[in-house]
Every structure is written in structure tokens, then in C-alpha cells.
Amino acid sequence: LEIPDPPLIIYYYGNISVLNSAPAVAVVGTREPTDYGSEMALTAGDVLARAGVTVVSGLARGCDTSAHQGAISARGKTVAFVAHGLQSIYPPENSELATSIVETGGCIATEYPLGSKLHPAHFKRRNRLQTGTSIATLVIESDLKSGTMYTAGFAQLHKRKLFVLSHPEDKHSPSSEGNLRLLREGYALAVSEEEVLAGEWLEV
What we know:
Blueprint (H helix, E strand, L loop, with lengths): L10 E4 L3 H4 L2 E5 L6 H16 L3 E4 L5 H11 L4 E4 L13 H9 L3 E4 L9 H13 L3 E4 L8 H10 L3 E5 L11 H9 L3 E3 L1 H6 L6
Parallel strand pairs: 2-3, 2-6, 3-4, 4-5, 6-7, 7-8
Antiparallel strand pairs: 1-5
Helix pairs in contact: 2-3, 5-6
């Protein structure tokens, strides 16, 4: 309700109350992460969940998948905002992950009614729900063309904290060029690998 264009209705499967019963943090990143990006998304999801935080992401391939899996492995709660109706799961290989999210007390949520199909514009708009329901967003890994850059923009628009993983020099790649741009622009706060592992980067 605090964002400029909130959805009129949210459709969900599972326990949507986890968005209000605990602080929520969005963990997002590219669909084509490096091994390092996947590992850090998994770790961030795990560490946040162990701290009692609800992990929010988008059920996409790559960093989103790892963030959800990390939260589940820590027996925490996670919420996936999807860009289509709840009659199906995209990508289809994440159907089992979606089931696990619900079975462990989280939920799958969308603003699109049952029967709504995928559309490229839906993914961009979906991203605002991730940042809008979270007190902060953590960007794990993003190339310059990734939809994650839109998510970071929404975090700034919504005046929410934006944290960006600062990759060690030997882990820099085209997949993390977006991280560098976001940090250069000045709004985002850099988080090191050690800070993610220690769970001390965000007081929640």
C-alpha cells in the first residue's frame, strides 16, 4: 500500500501472512549467474531465514531460485512473486520448488488473475512487488541488461534500502557489471561476501 501503484488484488497460494509477521527482504539477481553468484544467493537466503527474515524473490532461474532454496534449507519462510496467473508455474522446472515454498509456510503470489499468461511487461511490473513488500533489497549479481536493474530502480523509487553485493576482484565478470553501475550511482550500499556470511549487513 505504500508504493505509488499498488495492485488492487493479490492472488496467492500458501501463507501470505509471512509478509507481515516478520521483516521481509528481497534477494534478487540475474537468471544466468556465475557459480559465485548462485552460491552467494543461496547463502543470503539461508542467513536471512535463520535470522527470522522472510526472503522475497521471483522464482526465476538463477539467483532467485538459489535465494528461495537457501531460505528453505534454513527452515525459513520465503515468498515468490510471479508474473502470471497461478494456473501454472514458470519456469516449469521450478514447480517442485514452488510446492516446497508453500509446504514450508511461504507462498506464491501474483497480481495477475487465474488464466493470465506470460508477457514480457509482466516481469518488470512484478519486480515492484518484491521491493514494495520488503524493507530492503539485496542485489546478488546483475548484468547491465538484467531485469534486476529494474528491481533496483523500484527499490530507490520506493525509498527502500538497496544493498548490492560487492564482488571480490577475482569474481568480477560481465554478470556483475550491473553491480558496479549501481554502486557507482551512489544510492546503493555495498555489502561484502564476509558481511553476507556473517549476517551483519542489515539490522532487521
